[in-house]
TrEMBL record:
Belongs to the KHG/KDPG aldolase family. Pathway: Carbohydrate acid metabolism; 2-dehydro-3-deoxy-D-gluconate degradation; D-glyceraldehyde 3-phosphate and pyruvate from 2-dehydro-3-deoxy-D-gluconate: step 2/2. It is an enzyme of class 4 (lyase). Keywords: Carbohydrate metabolism, Lyase, Schiff base. It catalyses: 2-dehydro-3-deoxy-6-phospho-D-gluconate = D-glyceraldehyde 3-phosphate + pyruvate. GO terms for molecular function: 2-dehydro-3-deoxy-phosphogluconate aldolase activity. The lineage of its organism: Bacteria, Pseudomonadati, Pseudomonadota, Betaproteobacteria, Burkholderiales. Its EC number is 4.1.2.14. This is 2-dehydro-3-deoxy-phosphogluconate aldolase. Homotrimer.
């Protein structure tokens, strides 16, 4: 799908690009660029770099500048300040593990499409009150998995989800088959041992396999 990074990107664009949004934890800034290249090479362009490590913002900045085709986003956005820092670093979208109106407002102010994290009906309602209908279901498997999404489809038919947390190549298809799931998120495309070893070919392979999940 043709997506011009930064040009009116929506949360739905982010979800539609590939079947999986990789959740990336960068421990070493030097890994960010080759890792992003490996994922793009495998057809995965929307890259969620979690703000869990001190070099996450530097990694987002490096990917934004140096990896054509990559669309870096910030994960683990937990405050308005996180949203502002992510946008300044060059993030093109944001993902949060939960939701507050302050985060929603801050993302709008800095122009970041946001996938707010929800795990209950009340949280869905709060996100919807602020205009968010594309949501991350987190943590998906511990919170009820596919059965929960099926149950939500009744009262929330307009909401589209990206289940994340406990999703893997083994269960991704069960989620992707649901009418209210557009994509899934997961850390399995970037195994810590492959990143540490610089095994970028393996990461490209995992990315390719994940792209095929949608058509298979
Ligand atoms: O850091 C965040 O903002 C998160 O929301 C957490 C991640 O999305 C999950 O930890 C990924 O879960 P796994 O694929 O099961 O490893």
């Amino acid at each position: 799908m043709a997506v011009t990074p930064g040009a009116n990107l929506t949360a739905l664009d982010v979800m539609r690009n590939a079947a999986v949004i990789p959740v990336i934890v960068v421990d070493d800034a030097a890994q960010a660029v080759p890792l992003a290249r490996a994922l793009v090479e495998g057809g995965v362009r929307m890259l969620e770099v979690t703000l869990r490590t001190p070099m996450a913002l530097a990694a987002i900045e490096a990917i934004a500048r140096q990896v054509p085709g990559a669309v870096p986003g910030a994960g683990t956005v937990r405050s308005a300040a996180d949203a502002q820092a992510a946008a300044s670093a060059g993030a093109k979208f944001a993902v949060s593990p939960g939701y507050t109106s302050a985060i929603g407002r801050a993302c709008r102010e800095v122009g970041l499409p946001l996938l707010p994290g929800v795990a209950t009906g009340s949280e869905i309602l709060m996100a919807q009150e602020d205009g968010y209908n594309e949501l991350k279901f987190f943590p998906a498997v511990p919170s009820g998995g596919a059965a929960m999404l099926k149950a939500w489809h009744g009262p929330f038919p307009e909401v589209r989800f990206c289940p994340t947390g406990g999703v893997s190549v083994a269960n991704a298809k069960d989620f992707l088959a649901l009418p209210n799931v557009v994509c899934v998120g997961g850390s399995w495309l970037t195994p810590a041992d492959a990143v540490k070893a610089g095994d970028w070919a393996r990461i490209t392979r995992l990315a390719r396999e994940s792209v095929a999940l949608r058509s298979a």
